[in-house]
Amino acid sequence: MKKYAIFDLDNTLLDFTRGETEGVTHLLHKYGVTDLQRGLQVYHQVNQRAWQAIEQGAERDPLLNRRFEQTFQRMGLTVTDPIVEQQYRRHLDHNYYTLAGAHALLAHLKKAQVTLIAGTNGIKATQLSRLAGSGLDVYFDQLYISEDVGVAKPDARFFQPIFKQNPSLDSTNTLMIGDGLRSDILGAQQVELPSVWFNPAHLTNETAVKPTYEVDHLATIETLVLA
């Protein structure tokens, strides 16, 4: 049985994709995009590049503040007002959707006295609001958000405050759990922690990053932590 479980949040426990799709679609429609499917595709491309740069150490805010401007530009529209990003973030603040089985998984691990740690990239206000609104906050003993830590996963420095707060945490008693190969799993690999890649969509791993375990159901994570 593991003593510690470090969980990513977005698309591991919280259904980020559902809230993101709703928020982006609303803004595309509001600002005049008629081909919403194409608009979503373009936004995802722009956003993915932004977060890849952030995970590699680039400054976060300038990249996020321009993602809608770049999206609309590629759709042939000029929208430079930074209020669009603010509107999107307000929408995300109220995205309380969770993935099926998330509450049960955390409740069972909590009952088994596993120390539950949330380790997430993102904006502090947004993540705190979503944890509280979803009711997942009651399960976690500790919370680490990249905005507070100062660096994002997979940077090994993201994990430094976690190790500092938990001196007994090591590769024998801990699992890092997340859906992101280049953030969660690579981050765990760089600090020599075993990892669980949550991959319900059965994506092909075309990277050099190798998770310790790969699962497609949250219930399987419970088995791995409590084994």
Determine the strand fraction and express it as a percent band. 5-15%
Poorly predicted runs are none
Q: For the largest sheet, list the strands in their spatial order.
A: 3-2-1-4-5-6
Structure classification: alpha/beta
First-residue to last-residue Cα separation: 5 Å
Q: How many H/I helices?
A: 11
**Count the strands?**
6
Architecture overview:
There is one protein chain. With 227 residues, the protein is α/β, with parallel strands linked by helices. Helices cover 48% and strands 11% of the residues.
Write the layout of secondary structure elements.
Elements: E1 4-7, H1 16-30, H2 36-55, H3 60-65, H4 67-74, H5 83-93, H6 102-111, E2 115-120, H7 124-134, E3 142-145, H8 146-149, H9 160-165, E4 174-178, H10 181-190, E5 195-198, E6 213-215, H11 218-226
Parallel strand pairs: 1-2, 1-4, 2-3, 4-5, 5-6
Helix pairs in contact: 1-2, 1-5, 2-4, 5-7, 6-11
